[in-house]
Amino acid sequence: MKKKKIAFITGIVVAxxxxxxxxxxxxxxxxxxxxxxxxxxxxxxxxxxxTDTHHIAAGNGGYYYTQYDADGKIRLYYTQVENENGVVLxxxxxxxxxxxxxxxxxxxxxxxxxxxxxxxxxxxxxHKKEGMGYLCKIDSDGSGREDVCALFAMDKxxxxxLVFHENDIYAYDSVGNAGGSENxxxxxxxxxxxxxxxxxxxxxxxxxxxxxxxxxxGGYLYFIVMEYRLDMDSKTHYADERLYRYDYGNGIAEKVIxxxxxxxxxxxxxxxxxxxxxxxxxxxxxxxxxxxxxQADKNxxxxxxxxxxxxxxxxxxxxxxxxxxASRIERVIYVYDRSFNLIREIDCGKDCTGVYFGDEKYLxxxxxxxxxxxxxxxxxxxxxxxxx
Length: 388
Ligand SMILES: [Zn+2]
Hints:
It is a single chain. The protein contains three helices and 28 strands. It is mainly beta. It has a domain of 229 residues: Neuraminidase. The strands form seven sheets. It has a four-stranded antiparallel beta sheet, with no helix packed on it. The chain has a four-stranded antiparallel beta sheet with strand order 5-6-7-8, with no helix packed on it. Strand 13 and strand 14 form a beta hairpin. Bound molecules: zinc ion. Zinc ion binds next to loops. The site of zinc ion has 7 residues, from loops. Keywords: Membrane, Transmembrane, Transmembrane helix.
């Protein structure tokens, strides 16, 4: 019963947590902010991606991704996406890539399921050993692999996420104690690239708490503090999600939006966020004024948000109800232009198991065990294509 319950909770938490969305502010463009600010979402910190569902990462002119292969093993691949097959990321001579000795194999028991990040010439995955999660650094050609520091005690449902900023990595457990009934402390840890020393930079104590959806924007680490509780008997759930940010400069964290924020995006002085059940707001940090640009409705009660310099992408997470944890609807990504005119609804299919968003070139999702993409150039018409 406990396992089932936790699995159920994990599914819901992933659904709740993930929600990314879109949005930006018309003012950003009207105010002639520089192109580099507008492009914030597609810098090397890769803030346009969904931090907590990260089975694919841009790097080295292509993309590194993980895949559950037919033999039940998870492997690392590299691809340039179009018109080619992914290459197994293993530099061992004469390796058949079939055993756990293969450099590309990330056994699901030992590595956090499918998670891979890329930053400054290295891949990072989460390695689990004896109940502890380690930050594992992998050479970009797959040749070397090294656990560089311990991060968190982990059980099988823990899910460590990473955010990169300058010479540091920030780590947190996006499932945390969500769904739990006790008070637990959740932490954000900072890891220095180089000597890989670890320190705790933020702590939150709450019942059923988790830190989710963190990203790097303009001198701050933004993140959502969630308190998630579930009533198994009535199948109803309660999720409280508030937006915070941590100032890299002075080390102080503050609450930014005291509403139910499912996701957000930051463009210069403008914050775009989705208030669950209400809609998408554009908030100006300078004037502290905000406008409701997209109204929530039955098809989009919560949203995950991404922005690629041209369009906003809102993922409805397939959530059909704010309270009924089991209620599901079609998972759709809504594409908006910079003035929040809806320009396309992209059906993710009934087999969609995750939305990664992407960069300025591609939009990525997962259908069952396969990553699919749409080329952004053809965003108005293209259909999903499977990575080969
Ligand atoms: Zn191999």
